[in-house]
Structure prediction request, 555 residues.
Amino acid sequence: MALLRYQTANLFRSHRWILPLMVYALLISVGGAGSGEEAGSGQAVAHLRAQALASGLDWSAAIVLVVTALLTRSMLTAEPGAARACVAAARGPGRAQLGTLLTSFAGGAILGVAGAGYELVTMGHKTALLVPFFDGLGKVLVCAFVGSAIGTLFNPPVIRHQAAALLSTIAAVVVALVSSVSPANAAIHGNGAAIQSAAWPAGVPLAAAFALVAVSWMVSCWLAGRRSD
Amino acid sequence: MLLIGRGTRPWKDWPVRLISVGKRYGLRQPWIIKNVSQEIAAGRLIRLAGPNGSGKSTLLRIIAGAMVPSAGRVAGRPHTGYVPERFPPALAFSAHEYLEHMGRIHGLPPTGVRAAVDEWLERLGAADYARAPLRTLSKGMCQKVAIAQALLARPGLLVLDEAWTGLDQAARGALDAAVAERVAGGGIVLFVDHDPARLADRVDEEWRFAGDSIAVMSAPARQSPRAGWSAAEAGPAPQTATIEVTGLEEASLDRVAGLAGVLTVVANRPLGRVLVTVSDAASDAVLRELLSWDGVHVSAVAPRADQSLSGQPQPGETRGAAEAAR
Prediction:
């Protein structure tokens, strides 16, 4: 808990959250404007609204992936090596690393939920929209997982070369969004083995994304303390 | 998450043990330190000495738990405070905020954190800068913050990598006093410092880095009896032999440590009996070499590592081996 508090404070104080937040707000508002027009020009029928909300949430889930990957990257590169070593001496290098990863994931996930809430509020007639809303939240979670896994696997201590880390992070984000083997892509487009139940999305994409993020965190925590800064 | 679980436990009167510790940064990289086995008893003040790049900082980081060794392990480590060689001011906190966070991370109770932070900033003479952002602090002031974070929770193991560098006179004295306090309380303190006179009258052991191995010099006055550990506890015993030598001169200790196959050299001041641990494969060659030196007498050969300084020579039967070798 103390570790999470320290990392969260570090995140806020270092202003590393500003760029991801601005990217997020910008893209959400662009997407939101699009879906709002669609709903307005339609016949104000409930299922059209639901469709509009679903597409809005798909959009915001995709953004969450980008933002979580960015946030994880900036957190992993933010803390100076010596400060990290002090924390590692107190709590172990693995735990110190996990604190960083959890904080950045939580940041991305909170943004995602807030964005989904924003989409819902701007739609009105909330009761009819709860099913697509929870469906959308499941997608947001999948994308936060995948974004965190990408940020973890393509940045220090796994990839230490600065330029290589940045380029591979961007490339992986693009691949995760467009490739059909990506759980994020499956979740967003709802094709293949997509989320079955809307209320509690326990589908394959979620499981796959969770497995991916668990493995990436383990690799990162294992390498932390084994590699030099 | 078994993978990242790690054993820090409350300080008990057990020794910290380095068991065949080695470190290299990659499978094709050379070993920076190799096969270091030492036992550190409670209440010891230990200095690590050696040229730049000999692996002192790496070993300190491993003992502090900030780095995981590539081979072997460190057992029995109590709660640890670590002062790194260079403490960067790149964090976006004020000194006080940073130390409060570190106090909580070190497990201090919420009510005790502020008091502990105030106390250590005061002792180190940094109270006036408590609210200043870390990035505006001078090198010396940053160093005080780094020292304070390590001492906040009064750790059982304190590891100082050139912690005195950049401090003013008063703060150096305060750090000396803090080190003495830790040792008096049964804690272990390991340090590296470029000034050979640093705490010279208080140091219990000096670990000298020579080639691949470490020579351990022990001050005579402060030796405390300490228990060896059983082979079962230590895991599979490394294939080593211990040679007991008398008649060595201090100047030739480094030469002994530099011989191929020598793992550790343990000696007391004034120089009497010296224990040389060698890998099994090299034991014959090292024995022959030592016997060829003037005035050097091999008094016993034991078939396994004996790290205990105060331990008695191995039973009489092993003397036979020494005589046979002669």
Observations:
- Residues 2-223 of chain A form one domain.
